[in-house]
Amino acid sequence: MGAAQICLDDLVFALEAEDTARIVKQNKPPGVPERSRHIFSVTIMRGEGILNKSLGKGADGFVTVTDAQTGERLIKTRTVLGQEDPRWCAWLRLCLTPELTCREQSFEVSVGQVKTLELTVFDRTLVGKHDGLGTATFRLDPRSYAEVSVRDVLLPLTPRGNVHVRISMEGGEKHDVAYHLQAASRALDRTATDMIRQIVDKMSDFIKSTLSPATLMAITKPLKDKKKPRTALSEEEIERSLGPLFAYFNENVSHV
User: Fold this and answer.
1) Same-domain pairing of 49 and 100
2) Do 137 and 175 reside in the same domain of the chain?
3) In this structure, are 110 and 195 located in the same domain?
4) Residue 242 forms beta bridges with which residues?
């Protein structure tokens, strides 16, 4: 991803994108019609009543949004663990600004007349397919946002729950090289973020399975046995119990 970003930056420099766009605009042939398209930004904010079906408590919830016509996935949010009312766009202590976190839960889409999107909430599982908890569809219509460009929308899920999203119409799509190169750069940033999130999610699954309650109970069982004198775990026992986790890190993270 870093190499792709460098290539894109080199392309912007080689094409002199800003100057090229200005010259093309100044010398545009008369009578050429412009297509009317608008850019919408959608941010996944928070959910309500996002429950694990079997346990009846807060789910490990994440959201996907797809184009209802093409099936293209536009975003997959981070997973919020064990929350009935999760906040996907929230303040993170490690971030200097909340806008950074919200931007990671946002996507942009180009709309001509009307575009219909489908939002689905999943409960993340360690093994097998993730459980679908609810779906909702919503429309992006430039005419509805002509007067008020930013709206907070409540989407009722079927069969239960709600998701709050923030929708803003950013303006018209420009048909010049600078605009599309900037859009490509934003898409590249979002893709890099998605890749990082996928890696973290996969690592978290392995860590949770390695440090499962059953594993921890087996490790600490000698300490809870009242019939035997209580002794501290030896270094060999500790190393043996955490061996698979360290092996996973050595294999997958040592070269990063």
Assistant:
1) yes
2) yes
3) yes
4) none
Question: Domain range for residue 100?
Answer: 2-30+45-201
Contact between 177 and 25 under an 8 Å Cβ cutoff? The reply is: no
Pairing relation of β-strands 106-111 and 131-140?
unpaired
pLDDT digits (tens, 9 = 90+) for 10-44: 887 787 777 777 777 777 767 655 556 788 889 99
Same domain, 63 and 161: yes
Alpha carbon of residue 156 to chain centroid: 20
Residue 35, domain member (yes or no): no
Give the model confidence (pLDDT) of 121-163 as tens digits: 999 887 778 899 999 999 999 888 878 888 899 999 999 999 9
3-class SS letters over the chain: CHHHHHHHHHHHHHHCHHHHHHHHHHCCCCCCCCCCCEEEEEEEEEEECCECCCCCCEEEEEEEEEECCCCCEEEECCCEEEECCCECCCCCCCCCCHHHHHHHCEEEEEECCCEEEEEEEEECCCCCCCEEEEEEEEEECHHHHCCCCEEEEEEECEECCEEEEEEEEEEECCCCHHHHHHHHHHHHHHHHHHHHHHHHHHHHHHHHHHCCHHHHHHHHHHHHCCCCCCCCCCHHHHHHHHHHHHHHHHHHCCCC
Please say whether the dihedral angle defined by the alpha carbons of residues 56, 58, 62 and 68, taken in this order, is positive or negative: positive
Residue 217: pLDDT band with limits 50, 70, 90: confident
Classify residue 206: in a domain, yes or no.
Answer: no
Q: How many domains, the chain? A: 2
